[in-house]
Design a protein that fits this description.
This protein has one domain (1-268, 297-329, 407-488): Rossmann fold. The chain contains 13 helices and 14 strands. It has helices at 145-150, 166-169, 202-216, 242-251, 264-270, 273-278, 309-315, 342-352, 358-367, 383-396, 411-415, 426-430, 450-464, and strands at residues 7-11, 51-53, 57-60, 62-64, 69-76, 108-114, 123-129, 156-160, 190-200, 224-228, 236-237, 299-300, 323-328, 404-406. The strands form three sheets. Strands 4-5-6-8-7-9-10-13-14 form a nine-stranded mixed β-sheet, with helices on both faces. A hairpin with a 4-residue loop joins β4 (62-64) and β5. α8 (342-352) packs parallel to α10 (383-396). The longest helix has 15 residues, at 202-216. The protein is globular and about 65 Å long. One of its GO terms (molecular function) is carboxylic ester hydrolase activity. Keywords: Hydrolase.
Length: 488
């Protein structure tokens, strides 16, 4: 099966070149219908070819046969965020008649869509935000061909890259962010009134941030959310993280005493990418010695993130849409050291949660005993305690809703002492070899029967905002946690 980057065949002056996403995702601020989708709309529209004409540019994709799926890979949705555009909202893509872009930046997206649809088909849109701890784009090349086929060729899949690490989450009062809206998804057969935002890990956290954005203001940009193995790091205020900005600037010789005219931001924007990358690494919080697991993270500040996430969710200051949410049994095993004693365990917790008091640490050590009920015997004595404490704090417990627990065991992973770790459901959702090499993996062998079950739950939710409508015939009914005001 061919899988290659799309070619930009023409760029020209015109309207609409203002950031395809916050564009293709934040498609239009019109009222969503939220209607079920079984078949493409029969309304009139132009047939969609592999050349997508967006008005301001054309992109040549590739038709995959016999799957009857079109793919467009590596489409630019905004100008390269380099030089003066660093740490600014996405700007319009350049209109310079280039045939190819070869700049090394991240503002690209991929689209998969049925081949035989029109601009009036109005298919549900699965908009996927990849994970990576806000430090890397780790799921950048998903192949959505199989989920398009299994949906009956009745949905569009979009995947986005975004700025990460210090390039995306450097916190300071110097930095503010806005966004633009655009209207391009119908050029791929998608319905701008039926966009479901989905993500895993930090991408799932991003779904929550979008639900809480602008104080929970509902701009009718999405009708549902999917939150897989969500990453919930400590959500700090900008003022708490100014030290991080100061360190970063100093590490590239842009501190207030070194920057020309004392202008730190201008100095930072003048630096070569390689120089900035040299300072883009995790460091210890003030007063501590070991680097935090995750360092550059979203903060409270500005219009987009107005309060702590849990405050907004508790008081209902969010966009109220149906959400499919859950975690894996052993979320923390892939992130923690093989702690041999209680000192190593508690030092790791303190390094990652610096505001924990001595009394807090006593409570934690009492709640997570040595050997962790013999859960991971192949590791040192305090590995289980560390993994469970970190995993439950960072991934599982902040959900505070009745959510799914994914517990499909991979024999090799269990034998290695990691249980059912972070984002284990990923391959079952998208299919074998569609999220990375999986020849001979459990989903190709003893767990193969789980793939259609999990995949069709997700497909059904994207299309109908209900995982049961098109569930696999062997799958149990997925009961909603609560029914109120039409939302589960």
């Amino acid at each position: 099966m061919a899988f290659r980057r799309s070619r930009e065949v023409e760029a020209r002056e015109g309207e609409g070149g203002r950031g395809v996403l916050v564009g293709l995702f934040q498609v239009v601020a019109s009222r969503p219908s939220g209607r079920p989708h079984d078949e493409p709309s029969c309304g009139h529209g132009e047939d969609i070819s592999t050349v997508a004409d967006l008005g301001y540019t054309k992109y040549e994709g590739l038709r995959l046969e016999p799957a009857s799926v079109n793919q467009w890979l590596g489409m630019r949705f905004a100008a390269p965020p380099t030089g003066d555009l660093r740490w600014k909202a996405p700007q319009p893509a350049p209109m310079n008649n280039m045939k190819y872009y070869r700049l090394r930046d991240c503002l690209y997206l991929n689209v998969f869509a049925p081949a035989r649809v029109t601009t009036a088909s109005k298919l549900p849109v699965w908009f996927f935000i990849q994970g990576g701890g806000y430090a890397g784009n780790l799921d950048q090349n998903f192949n959505a061909t199989q989920v398009i086929e299994e949906s009956g060729h009745s949905m569009v899949f979009v995947q986005i890259n975004y700025r990460v690490g210090a390039f995306g989450f450097l916190a300071s009062e110097n930095i503010r962010e806005n966004g633009d809206l655009n209207k391009y998804i119908h050029f791929f057969g998608g319905d701008p009134d039926h966009v479901v935002i989905a993500g895993d890990s930090a991408g799932a956290g991003s779904v929550a941030f979008h639900m809480a954005a602008y104080g929970g203001r509902d701009d009718k940009l999405f009708v549902g959310g999917v939150v897989e193995s969500s990453f919930w790091p400590t959500h700090r205020k900008v003022s708490d993280m100014e030290f991080q900005f100061d360190r970063f600037a100093a590490n590239v010789s842009c501190g207030p005493d070194e920057a020309p005219d004392g202008n730190v931001m201008d100095c930072l924007r003048s630096k070569d990418t390689a120089v900035l990358q040299s300072a883009d690494y995790a460091q210890a919080f003030p007063g501590l010695t070991s680097p935090a697991e995750w360092y550059f993270l979203p903060v409270v500040g500005g219009d987009f993130s107005q309060d702590l996430l849990y405050n907004q969710f508790e008081r209902g200051s969010i966009v109220k849409v149906p959400v499919l949410v859950g975690d894996d049994t052993d979320e923390g095993t892939g992130f923690v050291p093989n702690a041999t004693n209680i000192t190593e365990f508690l030092e790791f917790m303190k390094d990652n949660f610096p505001k924990l008091s001595a009394k807090d640490l006593q409570h934690i050590s009492a709640a997570y005993p040595e050997n962790g009920l013999d859960m991971f015997p192949s590791h040192a004595n305090y590995f289980a305690a560390t993994a469970n404490a970190y995993g439950e704090n960072t991934f599982t417990c902040p959900d505070q809703v009745w959510n799914y627990r994914y517990n499909v065991e991979d024999r090799d992973t269990v034998a290695a002492g990691y249980g059912v770790p972070h984002v284990s459901e990923k391959t079952a959702i998208y299919g074998v070899n569609n999220t990375g090499p999986c020849d001979g993996c459990s989903y190709a062998t003893h767990n193969a029967s789980m793939v259609p079950i999990v995949m069709h739950y997700w497909i059904s939710f994207i299309k109908h905002l209900n995982p049961n409508v098109e569930k696999h015939f062997t799958a149990p009914e997925w009961q909603p946690w609560i029914q109120r005001c039409g939302h589960a």
